[in-house]
Amino acid sequence: MSTDDNPLPRSVIRPNSFVLLNGIWNFEPDADNIGLTEQWQQAHAYKHIAHWPGSVEAHMAKLQPAQASWKDRVVVWYERLFTVPESLGASLNPNSLLQLTLGACGYETRVWLNGILLQTIEGEEVHRGEYTSFSYELDAALLQPENRLTIRIESTMDADTPRGKQESSVYKRGGIWYQTYTGGVRSIWLETVERNRLRSRIGVVSVIEDNLVRLNFTTRIHDAGMYTIKLQVFNRAEPTALPVATDEYALFIEAGQKKQRLVIEIPDAQLWTPENPHLYRLVAQLQDATGYSAQIKSSFGLRKIEARGRYIYLNNKPVYLDGILYQPGLADYELIQLHMHAMKKLGCNLVRIHIAGVDPRIYDLADKLGLLLWVEVPSPHRSSPKSRENHQAELLRMLALMGTHPSIVIWSLYNEDWGAQDIATNPETRKYITDMYHYLMIAHPEFLVVDNDGWQHISYEGRLKSDLLTAHLYTANLPKWSELLDLFITGRQSGVAAFPLVVGDPFFFRKQVPLVVSEWGGFGFVEYGGPNDNQERSRQIQLFKAELRKRPIAGDVYTQATDIEEERNGLIDFATGALKVPAGLLASPL
C-alpha cells in the first residue's frame, strides 16, 4: 500500500472514519511526581503547551534550554479538549464504537477520559511499552458534548527497560549511546470501529511451493455467535481488477479476543523478491449472522526465507545479503523515506534497523522498494528476570503488528549481549533466549532468528540457537581484515570477534550454518578508525567488500547509513538523503 492511502502509523487500513488528535496540547512536567496525588486528571491549571506528536526531550528543551536532558526519571502530563466530530458521531450505531489509539507512547502511559481512567483493549490501566501502538475502546456513556483527554507519561533510566541505544543508568550518553527519545512520539487518533471486528494485526506465512498463504487473524468480539470471515486477494498494482483468489470460513467465535489461522490458495502466485517486489492486496471481512460486516485491508507478499548449510535462500534460491546498518535516531518519516531510497541506491538489498522502534510505515516502504529488513528488539541494558520479562513483552507486541511484511526476514533477540551480559555464565539467561528462539521457530517460521548478534551465540547440546552465525568485525587494516575473515570461515570461535562466537555447549561449525559479518567498517568513527575522506573511504570499502565476496560468507552489513550524534561514519547525508559516496558502492559485483 502507498503511504498516501494510509496516513496512520500502521499497516492495516479500515474504511471507517478517523480524526487525528495531533496538534497543540496543554503540557506540564511533574518534576516532584505529585500529579497522581493531587489528581491532575480531575483538574489542573496547565502552564505550558506542547505539540503531539513530539518527544518529551524536545518539549523540555524549549522550557529549560540551559539544562541538560532529564536524569533518572521524568513524568509529564498532556491534556486537551475535543468534541466527537460529526464524521465519527454520525456513523456511530449499535454495531459501532469509538476507539482511541496512540501510535507509540511510553514507557508507562495512563489515559483518562473526562477524569475516568481508561483500560486498553488488553485490560491495562498502565500501558508499558514504547515502540508500538495501543488502543482504548471508549464507552459511549463517558462521552460528553465536549470531552477532556488527559495523558500521564513516565519514563526512567531503568536498565531493565527495553531501550535500545538510548542512555540508561548503566550506559551513559556519548559514543554509541544516545539521548533518550520518549513520550507521545507518534500520531494519536480517534476512529469508529465495529463492536465485532478483525483487529489491525495480521500474520502472513507463505507456503510458496503450494501457492498457499497462511493468514493469522485476531478477532475482537463483544457478541458471541456465528460469523463468516470472507477473504479477497487482489494484485495490488491492479486496484480495479477482479480478485485473484477468494474464500470464506464459517466459525463460532466467543466474546473477547481469539487468534484464528485461515489458509487461502493463490493460483499462479507471483513471489516477492528485491528485484520484483510483487505485492497482493488483502480485503478481509468479518460478517455476523445478520449480514453486518467489518472490513480491513492490508498488503502482503509471498516469499520464503531459509538458512541451509552455508547459504541463505530466498524463495529457494541462494541470496547474498548486501546490507547496511540503519539507526533512524530522531528522523521523522519524511527523512526516513529519503534514507531508505538512498540505501537502495547504494546497492543494498538489506537494511538492518538497529535495536530501535520505528514508524511502522518504514516496513510498508521496504515492501514496495524491495528492501529486505533485519529488525531487532530494543534491548534492555541489564540482565535480570525483570529485564527478560520486559524484553519478552516488547518482542510479542512488535511481532503482533509486523507480521504482514515480506520485507522483514530476520529478527535479532539481542545485540552484543546488551541486556544479556551474563550470557556466558548464567544458564537462566541462555534458557530464556533459547525459549524465545524456539517460540519464533514454531510461531513465526517466516523469519530467520539470531539469538545474540555479533558474538556469544548459544549452543545447547551442540545445536546453535541461531539461524545465522554472525560476527561484528571492526578493523581499518586490510591485512588484518583478511586474516579475521579467514579465521571466521574455518569455524574458528575465538580470536575472531571481541568475545568468543559461541557459548554454552561445544559447537562444531562444519559449514552447517550461514556466516554473516553483521557489522564492519564504521570508517570515520573515532572508535573504529579508517578514512574520514569520502573518496578514500569509498576506495577502502571497495577493497574490504572484495575480500568478503572472495569467501563463502552469506552476507555483510556495513556500519552505517547516516551520522548519528557522535557516530560520524554515515555514507548518506542525514538531512537530505544525498549519497556521500558513489551509487552502488555496497552492491556485490554481478
UniProtKB/TrEMBL annotation:
Residue ranges that the Swiss-Prot or TrEMBL entry lists as coiled coil: none
GO biological process, one term: carbohydrate metabolic process
SUPFAM superfamilies documented for this protein: (Trans)glycosidases (SSF51445), beta-Galactosidase/glucuronidase domain (SSF49303), Galactose-binding domain-like (SSF49785)
GO molecular function terms noted in the UniProt entry: hydrolase activity, hydrolyzing O-glycosyl compounds
Alphabetical keyword list: Glycosidase, Hydrolase
Residue span, Glycoside hydrolase family 2 immunoglobulin-like beta-sandwich domain: 209-303
Protein name: Hydrolase
InterPro entries: Beta-gal/glucu_dom_sf (IPR036156), Galactose-bd-like_sf (IPR008979), GH (IPR017853), GH2_Domain-Containing (IPR051913), Glyco_hydro_2_cat (IPR006103), Ig-like_fold (IPR013783), Ig-like_GH2 (IPR006102)
Family: Belongs to the glycosyl hydrolase 2 family.
Pfam families linked: Glyco_hydro_2, Glyco_hydro_2_C
Organism of derivation: Filimonas zeae
Segments forming domain Glycoside hydrolase family 2 catalytic: 307-439
Keyword Hydrolase: yes
